[in-house]
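Hi there, hope your week has been kind to you so far. Thanks so much in advance, here it is.
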Amino acid sequence: MTKIIVLGAGMVGSAMAIDLSNNQNYEVTIADLSLTALENIKKSHPKINTTCVDVTIKEELTKTLAPFDLVICAVPGFLGYQTLECIIKSKKDVVDISFFPENALTLNQLAIDHDVTAIVDCGVAPGMGNIILGHYNESMQITHFECLVGGLPKIKKWPFNYKAPFSPVDVIEEYTRPARYIENGQLITRDALTDVELIDFKSVGTLESFNSDGLRSLIFTMPHIPNMKEKTLRYPGHVDYIKALKSSGFFSSETIDFKSQKISPMEFTSEILFKEWFLKPHEEELTVMKISIIGTNRNNDIEEVCYELFDVYNSTTQTSSMARTTGYTATAAANLILNNQFNEKGVFPPELVGKHPHCFDYVINYLKERDINYLKTSKIQNQ
């Protein structure tokens, strides 16, 4: 029996544990510091083992990981890098979706030295967008790549028209971390929330897109592509409210004196927004994504390839769309490792997995089996 542990019992971590537990060959354990979160998943899925662990205590984490064959890391972003480093030092293969701000490729040699396969940033975006780009990079001379993506509530609630399927702290990170993109072969850095555009989608109507720092590993692994950009999608009007908070200092991490106490505006704001953005367990939401790739194909034609995703809350399994689209991409990658279909040693962002045709096909089909469908269109541009 293959033993798998999922670190993090949040919405996405729980979805991954449940998905993997449906395989009779896997014994799945989920770990978290929150006893309430563990009790909730144990009640609904008694087949899944639970264990309480503090990932910040390296000795405790190392001991917990010892009996397992594979680790899936779904901890909050600010804990991600140090947790992944500990997992690698424990000589455990791992799939990571913590989306930490540090560069995961700096751990590549450590993973090689410890004979570890680590697939990182393996969610929906980053994740599937990278897998798709990696696939087409093998057959096209790509000149443009754009990823538009957003998770949105089905019912809008003023003023933000937004609900967070994961930690509000990680969402705020999207709004504060400088956005990097590639334009005409040059690395451009701009503030997040800039270059706002209104874009129409047949599935959901008009959304606004803005710069966010979503290229991540692609900046380093795909330097030959002269134009690459990732933008986040929200309902129109969202950006103005966030900019108002940001400009007023509500996202500052520097402490201020308030009635003889020192408080962090960021912590205060996160607490308020956690309540405002809290996505209830059965609240309907959706995921929208559009991947556009332009380049010269093997027939020497300039081709534009698009993959579009529109996914909604699954009422049958009671699983949020963001948990499905993020989590099942990661569990597909876990199966690639466990089935020995991807066994290279080191740290691999998804584009270096998707470059292999059998890996790309496996992930696409794995998601289709779970009713997550990326619709492909392509057209030849006039030269």
